[in-house]
């Protein structure tokens, strides 16, 4: 599966109820990674890892359940008030990751190590061991790193451009490409197509590899009735000149996705999608409970006959 953060993690919680987690390989976006207080933070990797470990904060979907923020409060005395909420126990993950990076471990090894130590059975891997940084250009402002746009500025403003800095030079993880080629199904999570899945798809030769397996590739639309449940994907589609509908999404993915799972509220798009050469399936895509996420996962697996 190709994954961003919270939406992907929710889906994975369902998928791993339907198939053995050891069969699941998760390739995660690292374009959102950021340094805070000298520490390397990988929000999407951590969101997926914590969720599969059963440790994530159910209210936010990111961070850890039952967190405290004492260290962040103490850091404010030196750095000023922080805008990125790093919890005390979450900081342990960032300290460990940063320490290992400094010792020369690749991010993929650290990610597997953290997941194993937290008891996760699925294989979680960063999209690349090379650094890719997502920048967002909003009208009237210079391009800014993703977390600054998303958290500090609360995704305000009209998005004019997404820059995936370093993506052309970065190599996708070899294990990720191998897993994709060996898999019965490749699932694109209901994540943001520009800033979550975009960075993964931008790594050559990720997109052409998926295109060669298109019949086995399914994407889940993050749109429900013209809006996203969470996050700015709908605003971004509009700002970047795409139709905010499953058809707009299908045009973004058409070369590499054979099946598109859309919400039942959007069933009127089934025919137009089929006319575009996409196998379209409508179902309830709102993952309000793990059981709902598992039901969605079953529909996805059935749609590509796994
Ligand atoms: N999202 C927020 O909206 N506000 C935060 O303060 C915040 C802190 C944070 C800390 C660790 C972490 O792993 C994720 C965190 N996120 C926060 C979520 C993160 O910005 C997004 O989920 C992803 O980058 C987008 O997928």
Task: Give me the secondary-structure topology.
Elements: E1 2-3, H1 6-18, E2 25-28, E3 34-36, E4 39-41, H2 43-52, H3 70-79, H4 88-102, H5 107-117, E5 123-126, E6 133-138, E7 144-145, H6 146-152, E8 159-165, H7 174-182, E9 186-188, H8 198-201, H9 206-212, E10 217-220, E11 223-224, E12 227-228, H10 233-239, H11 246-253, E13 259-263, H12 270-275, E14 279-283, H13 290-303
Structure description:
- Helices cover 40% and strands 17% of the residues.
- The chain has 306 residues and is of the alpha/beta class.
- It is globular, with a radius of gyration of 18 Å.
- The protein folds into two domains: 1-32 and 123-306, CofD-like domains (Rossmann fold, 3-Layer(aba) Sandwich); 33-122, Helicase, Ruva Protein, domain 3 (Orthogonal Bundle).
- The longest helix has 15 residues, at 88-102.
- Helix 1 packs across helix 13 and helix 4 packs across helix 5 (107-117).
- The site of ligand FO1 has 19 residues, from helix 2 and helix 6.
Give the key terms.
four-stranded parallel sheet, alpha/beta, 2 domains, single chain, 14 strands, Helicase, Ruva Protein, domain 3, binds ligand FO1, three-stranded parallel sheet, Rossmann fold, 306 residues
